[in-house]
Each structure stands twice: as C-alpha cells, then as structure tokens.
Design a protein that fits this description.
The N and C termini lie far apart (51 Å). It contains ten helices and no strands. By secondary structure, the chain is mainly α.
C-alpha cells in the first residue's frame, strides 16, 4: 500500500507548502496522476495550511472596497479572487488529508478540484501581472479558512458548510463581476471568470454529492441537517438572489432554494 499512502501524503505535502508556485506545481502534478488513495491512512493535519507571508490578513471590514473602474481597483478585485482561489486549493487538499475512512472516490474528487483551483489561481495571477501587481500586494481576509477551521472535526459539517455555502456564493456573484469587468474593457479577466464559473459549478456539485452521501450514511435528512449545522456553527444560510441555473446544475434542489429565498 506504499503507493496508495503516497497519494494522500502527497496532498499533505502540497497542503503544508508555503510557496504558492510550488504548491500549485505539487497540486497539479498530483491531480494529474493521483494514484490510489489509502482511506485508512491517518495523516497529521495542521490547523493552518502552508501559505506565504503576504498578503497580510486583516478582519474583513478592514479590506478596502474594490472598484474595477480604476486600474488599481481592478487589480485589487482580481487579487481578492486570486486569494479565494488560493484558499480553495488548500480547502480541497485539506479535505483529502484530514478526513480518513471515506471512499477512495472522495479523495479523488477533491484532488481533481484542487488541481482546477490551482489552474484558476495561476490564470488570475498571470493576468494580475499584466496589471503590474502580484499576489500579496493587497490586504486580504481569512473568512474562507475560518469556516474550514470550524469544521475540522466532521466531514459532514465541512461538506455542508464550505462548498454549499461559501463556495456556492461564487456562483451567484460571478456574473455580476464579469459584467463589471467587461464594462471597463477587461474581457480577458471576464473570460477567466467564465472558466472559473464553469468549474465551480462542478466543485459545488462535488460538495453536494458528498454531503448527501454522508447524510445517507448517518441516516439524517439533508435539508433539516443543513439548517441544524448552520445554527450549530453560527453560519448564516445562503441568501437570495441566486444564480438559479448554476445552483441547480451544482446539485441544489428547487426546494432548498425556496427554503432560503424568503
């Protein structure tokens, strides 16, 4: 089982790597050739992933508004999206490393997601460079990882609250961001967001699929369990308006969307 252990151990190597370029290279190589995961392997998993000294992380309310009408504002907006994608790499890798004794397909799904998030990050950073900036040049916050930290003990909570709430929010806001970028003539950035939106529908679908699988394993109802998770973990449920087509394609039901629309 040495090769199998190396699959999840390789994910841990990428997760704890602090250099973004090296993390991306490790992640994409592993996603391209993941091997066979060993669900029984118990891997030491830090509370925090490896990440660079910059960007400096501050409370969300201290991050300035990003207005794409100016070059600096557009760079700040794309930096914020790149920061989300960098965190998404770590979130997907963390799911592979942290939670043992799940089906091999769980680990392979999240390795594939990690590889796609790494591609998104790479595209955004490359475009950011054309604007004269690099990842780390702007302030950022740690809201996405805060949610991950709260759910380290339970894969059901992780699947229920991170892909289905925080990552799914991107499905709702991305079309508006694309419109703003096209308005200021940045069609290249809007095209990158086209790719990200397409992939993120699939990532949310992965989260929904494994959330429902875990609910079935425990004999609990997904909709009522989700409401209970939001209360237990202090997470606000999703808020309308929704990108309904994208959310349906990502595995949400119309009944769920109706629950939250009011």
């Amino acid at each position: 089982m040495n090769a199998a252990r190396e699959t999840r151990a390789g994910a841990r190597e990428a997760l704890i790597c602090a250099d973004p370029g090296e993390k991306v290279a490790l992640t994409r190589a592993l996603a391209a050739d993941p091997g066979v995961p060993d669900p029984a392997a118990l891997l030491r998993c830090n509370e925090l992933p490896g990440r660079p000294g910059l960007p400096r992380l501050v409370p969300p309310q201290q991050v300035p508004r990003r207005r794409p009408g100016s070059l600096l504002g557009r760079a700040a907006l794309l930096h914020a999206i790149a920061h989300i994608e960098f965190n998404a790499i770590n979130l997907a890798l963390d799911a592979v490393v942290r939670f043992p004794n799940l089906p091999p397909a769980f680990y392979l799904d999240w390795l594939r997601v990690a590889g796609e998030e790494a591609q998104h990050y790479t595209l955004l950073v490359a475009h950011l460079a054309t604007l004269g900036h690099a990842y780390g040049d702007f302030l950022a916050h740690d809201g996405l990882w805060d949610a991950a930290r709260k759910t380290t003990a339970d894969p059901l909570a992780r699947m229920g609250l991170v892909p289905r709430v925080l990552e799914a929010r991107g499905l709702d806001v991305t079309p508006g961001l694309q419109a703003r970028l096209r308005t200021v003539g940045d069609t290249a950035a809007a095209a990158i967001l086209d790719l990200i939106l397409r992939d993120e529908i699939g990532h949310v679908a992965v989260g929904n699929r494994w959330y429902e699988w875990l609910c079935a394993q425990r004999g609990v109802a997904p909709r009522t369990t989700f409401a209970a998770l939001c209360v237990t973990y202090g997470q606000s449920p999703p808020r309308a308006p929704f990108n309904v087509a994208a959310r349906l394609a990502g595995g949400f039901s119309r009944e769920e969307l109706a629950d939250w629309a009011g």
